[in-house]
Amino acid sequence: MALTALFLGSPSPAPAAVVARWLASGHRIAAFWTAAGHEDHWRHDRRLGRVAPQWSLGRRLRSAGVPRIEVPRLASWPDAVRLAREAGADVLISAYFEHRVPPEMLALFPGRAFNFHPSLLPRYRGPTPVQAMILDRAADAAGITLHLLAPAIDAGAIVAQTEVTFPQPRYSVSLAHAAADLVDAIPSFLAGRIAARPQDESRASYVRVQPARDFVLSEDLTAATIAWRCRAMPYFRAPAIRALPGRDAIGFVRELGPPTGAPPRAGWFSADFDAADQRVRVRLRFGGWRRLDRWRHFWMLRRTPVLNGPCR
Question: In the chain, which ranges are continuous DSSP H helix?
Fold first, then answer.
């Protein structure tokens, strides 16, 4: 049975793969709503489209004739419910959408409003789940969850979820492929072939992270924690070194031995400083690293299909 969806989301590999799977499975998209004020995200998507067009959400929407509509915060937008009703959609699908969906809008889709969340719920609800997992070294919570939208943030019953190994260089691709594979659970759920299960509130957690403030390396962290953060954090933001203002780490080199009490020392490509239990050496970010890392990511996507298998 072909379904029509009203999509809410933003440009990122996982939403791009979800949209691709939805369309490839024979379903339709009435419109794609995206939060206003984030043109930089769509500019990034346009750059991606020149290198790896299969991963560009904007390109895919245009080729399918799907209108992309920038919307204000839904809770304070008086036209939200009316325009959602006029879309004539069977289901509401949210994938990395930045606003809370108000109850009045959810009432238009009883039992038919879904969200893709990048953690294994009920752990790490909220807008920064992966960043919070990094700070907690909670790799066992990494994955994607398809759940029903509810008035409370990320608290709806779980339809399906998949673990994804973290950290890994191809994490964004693995997460996107896992999200796309969960798309088929939506029509299965609506047809009654699978059931949703309530979340275990005793295991629920909500952590909001501000990477610019929280992604740091400091002398009160152990060498193991510093090594973990150097390995996992650059996926979002290279961690700053508190003892060396203005310098960021993009990798862990090695432990140098017990703390020496000597001041931190920065060279061209690496820095040494005391951690809580060891003196450590980290690799420093160099000028142009962010641009190089972005294009390296683009070229990895260029060699990777957006869907990881045949549609069912």
Answer: 13-24, 39-51, 57-63, 80-86, 103-106, 129-136, 171-182, 185-190, 211-214, 223-232, 289-302
Distance CA 64, CA 7 (A): 13
Structure tokens at 43: 């500019």
Contact assessment for residue 129 and residue 117, using Cβ atoms and an 8 Å cutoff: yes
Three-state DSSP state, 186:
helix
Checking if the pLDDT of 178 tops 60, the result is yes
Contact indicator for 134, 162 with CB cutoff of 8 Å: no
Helix (H, G, I), strand (E, B) or coil at 223: helix
Q: Does residue 311 have a pLDDT over 50?
A: no
Note whether 274 and 219 are within 8 A (CB): yes
Q: What is the mean pLDDT of residues 261-269?
A: 95
**CA 35 to mean position of chain CA atoms:** 15
- 59: tokens are 């390109």
Report the C-alpha gap between 258 and 280 in whole angstroms.
9
- Can you spell out the DSSP letters for 103-170? HHHHTTSTT-EEEEESS-TTSSBSS-HHHHHHHHT-GGG-EEEEEE--SSTT-SPEEEEEE--SS-TT
Both structure tokens of 298:
């683009």
Q: CB-based contacts of 20: which residues, under 8 Å, 6+ apart? A: 54, 60, 180, 306, 307
